[in-house]
């Protein structure tokens, strides 16, 4: 029996094991070899070396397109001997390619030239193939819910106290609009990479071929991999774009976390309920419970992810002088941070799939808090120039339980036109939602437009 240390590789592996395509040692070795092989091809195109033969080019292409468990095993065997992971990939490629001029492999480079581009390749693939599609699923689900509940009156709480009501659709539209902005930023995001040697000056490359424009070569190579070229670095790429990416992911996490906690509160108040799932148990002793465990699990995973992402964003942008190795161990844990985020959003989606709005419970709550109309009353009375209506309403309602009849008796005592009195008495809490439905419709329109692209 395999003994897992992390629940990501144990309890949750069935759900997120596919992320090993981006965050495992196998994936990293494959990405390193890919960059090394593309580099050989790029060097060959410069005309500085004896041209590769047709068969050599075929072997390079085949190695670039196919990376097996046997290849990875061989790299790890070499690493046991040389104790350097990037060098192990270089030596492996010397073995498997059997080039007539093997010195093209890793020519003039430092390990970080390969590492930063290999990690970029993995992060970019994860972003494109996993992170964005999952976030899109969440946006589509929220759009569906917002559309369905656009105009359904819903209680509001500020500081935990009854406040001017809203609609259920509007409350979800807030999260939809926030996540939509992050989704758009994430779609447009580009990583930055470097290929400039041991201390960032192209020194070894210049020593071998001083007339060649290695800065232009570097820019073209990095751009060709789909990244922006960082031409001015120390030995390591500064990872500022990594930090920006972690911060962007963390913002997504924070918004989802905010929604999880609101939903937990709404469920606890009975405004929403969870549809029971066949065979599911929420308590070992209380049979009646349908607990919001999906939102709670999401909250826990998001908290872990954000803690790691904050540490990574802060520390990976720092390196003593030209470089130190503290970043190496931290970088290997980036997948852990992103996997917790991914799992969390999966949990939130699962919870949303069980969610049902209890319109009757929401309406009862609204009808039980007529005091929230005090805002509307005092604002209307300001408009008709009643002196200090705020204080009048405060004395009537603050810290007291009042009824609709109490408010109507207050209105009867006002020296205002009968039309004003009639307007005030006609107001009902469930109708006092302002432009909520229109705002919601605008968010739906923007979301649908983005999601159809």
Describe this structure in words.
This protein has 453 residues and is mostly helical. The protein folds into 3 domains: 94 residues, Orthogonal Bundle (Fumarase C, Chain B, domain 1); 228 residues, Fumarase/aspartase (Central domain) (Fumarase C, Chain A, domain 2, Up-down Bundle); 68 residues, Fumarase/aspartase (C-terminal domain) (Ribonucleotide Reductase Protein R1, domain 1). The chain is 63% helix and 5% strand. It is built from 20 helices and 6 strands. The strands form 3 sheets. It has a two-stranded antiparallel ribbon. Helix 12 packs antiparallel against helix 14. The radius of gyration is 30 Å and the shape is elongated. The relative contact order is 0.11. The mean pLDDT is 92.
List the helices and strands and how they pair.
Blueprint: H1 13-16, H2 20-23, H3 25-46, H4 54-65, H5 69-82, H6 85-97, H7 111-148, E1 153-158, E2 161-167, H8 168-188, E3 192-193, H9 203-208, H10 214-224, E4 228-229, H11 240-269, E5 272-274, H12 293-315, H13 326-331, H14 334-352, E6 355-357, H15 359-367, H16 374-383, H17 389-397, H18 404-412, H19 418-426, H20 436-451
Parallel strand pairs: 3-4
Antiparallel strand pairs: 1-2, 5-6
Helix pairs in contact: 3-4, 3-6, 3-7, 5-6, 7-8, 7-14, 7-20, 8-11, 8-20, 11-12, 11-14, 12-14, 16-17
């Amino acid at each position: 029996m395999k003994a897992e240390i992390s629940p990501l590789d144990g309890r949750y592996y069935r759900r997120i094991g596919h992320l090993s395509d981006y965050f495992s040692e196998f994936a990293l070795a494959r990405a390193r070899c890919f960059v090394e092989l593309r580099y050989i091809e790029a060097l060959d195109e410069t005309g500085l070396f004896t041209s590769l033969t047709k068969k050599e080019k075929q072997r390079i292409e085949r190695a670039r397109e196919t990376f097996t468990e046997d290849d990875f095993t061989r790299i790890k065997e070499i690493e046991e001997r040389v104790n350097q992971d990037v060098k192990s990939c270089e030596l492996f490629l010397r073995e498997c390619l059997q080039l007539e001029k093997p010195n093209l492999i890793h020519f003039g480079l430092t390990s970080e030239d390969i590492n930063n581009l290999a990690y970029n390749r993995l992060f970019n693939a994860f972003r494109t193939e996993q992170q964005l599609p999952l976030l899109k699923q969440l946006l589509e689900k929220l759009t569906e819910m917002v559309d369905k509940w656009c105009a359904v009156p819903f209680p509001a709480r500020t500081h935990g106290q009854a406040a001017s009501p809203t609609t259920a659709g509007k409350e979800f539209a807030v999260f939809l609009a926030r996540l939509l902005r992050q989704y758009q930023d994430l779609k447009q995001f580009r990583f930055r990479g470097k290929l400039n040697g041991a201390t960032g000056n192209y020194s070894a490359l210049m020593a071998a071929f001083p007339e060649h424009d290695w800065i232009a070569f570097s820019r073209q190579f990095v751009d060709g991999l789909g990244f922006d070229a960082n031409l001015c670095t120390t030995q390591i790429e500064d990872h500022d774009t990594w930090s920006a990416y972690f911060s962007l992911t963390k913002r997504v996490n924070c918004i989802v976390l905010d929604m999880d906690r609101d939903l937990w509160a709404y469920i606890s108040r009975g405004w929403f309920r969870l549809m029971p799932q066949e065979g599911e148990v929420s308590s070992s002793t209380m049979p009646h419970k349908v607990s919001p465990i999906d939102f709670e699990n999401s909250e826990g995973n998001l908290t872990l992810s954000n803690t790691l992402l904050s540490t990574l964003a802060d520390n990976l942008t720092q390196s003593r002088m030209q470089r130190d190795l503290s970043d190496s161990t931290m970088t290997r844990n980036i997948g852990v941070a992103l996997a917790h985020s991914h799992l969390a959003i999966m949990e939130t989606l699962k919870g949303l799939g069980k969610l049902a709005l209890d319109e009757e419970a929401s309406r009862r709550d609204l009808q039980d808090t007529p005091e929230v109309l005090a805002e509307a009353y005092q604002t209307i009375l300001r408009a008709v120039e009643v002196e200090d209506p705020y204080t009048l309403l405060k004395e009537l309602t603050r810290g007291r339980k009042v009824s609709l009849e109490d408010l109507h008796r207050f209105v009867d005592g006002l020296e205002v036109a009968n039309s004003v009195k009639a307007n005030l008495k006609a107001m009902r809490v469930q109708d006092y939602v302002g432009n909520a439905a229109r705002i919601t419709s605008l968010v739906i329109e923007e979301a649908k437009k983005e999601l159809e692209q």
